[in-house]
Write a structure and sequence with these properties.
The chain is 60% helix and 0% strand. The chain is an all-alpha fold. The protein has one domain: Hypothetical protein af1432.
Length: 184
């Protein structure tokens, strides 16, 4: 387990003011799973924890504001995102993080940016945050075997398995509520 040290306090404070306590708890769980994954697959656990902790910092920004940020920071987005602006919470969240915490590693901003929809090229930390967001124990479809990684010799294999599982899960759920969960 990653040590939550005093120097992390500013990140916790930053986050607490931006999201509900329920999402805050989700964020801490994602951070913890990220740190575990990082340790297992040979990445740096502290950065992974922070990326997981902060991944949803933009999730509760109202849609109108998300669109303002997109314009102000000249964030690139596609038609699908413009139709469902909540999908922009990763890109906007990453831009806000870069303003508040410019010393964080670029890989942290990138993982936050890509956690919603993934990207054509996924780095290790990108995959770690993406996976952790979906397999953290608070998820409705959580299965303990998501947390056993011995069968996956590489992070890529685990990533593909998680992606397939989630796609299947949501294929069978068509209500708007479930869709909203998907973009948590
Ligand atoms: Fe999210
Ligand atoms: Fe999330």
């Amino acid at each position: 387990m990653v040590m939550i040290v005093k120097s992390m306090r500013p990140y916790f404070e930053f986050l607490k003011n931006r999201i509900t306590s329920k999402r805050f708890e989700h964020s801490v769980r994602v951070g913890r799973v990220c740190a575990k994954l990082a340790r297992y697959y040979g990445e740096e656990p502290e950065s992974a924890f922070l990326a997981g902790l902060l991944h949803d910092c933009g999730r509760e920004i109202p849609v109108s504001e998300l669109l303002k940020y997109v314009e102000e920071y000249q964030i690139e987005c596609d038609d699908f995102e413009m139709k469902k602006p909540v999908l922009l919470h990763g890109k906007v969240g990453a831009a806000i993080l870069a303003l508040y915490f410019p010393d964080l590693a670029e890989s942290v901003f990138r993982a936050v940016r890509l956690h919603v929809r993934g990207g054509d090229v996924m780095g290790k930390l990108d995959m770690i945050v993406y996976i952790a967001d979906f397999i953290e124990p608070g998820r409705p479809y959580f299965k303990p075997d998501f947390m056993v990684w011995d069968d996956f010799s590489t992070l890529e294999e685990l990533f593909l398995r998680v992606e397939r599982t989630i796609t299947l899960y949501y294929k069978n759920k068509s209500s708007k509520k479930k869709l909203e969960r998907y973009i948590n």
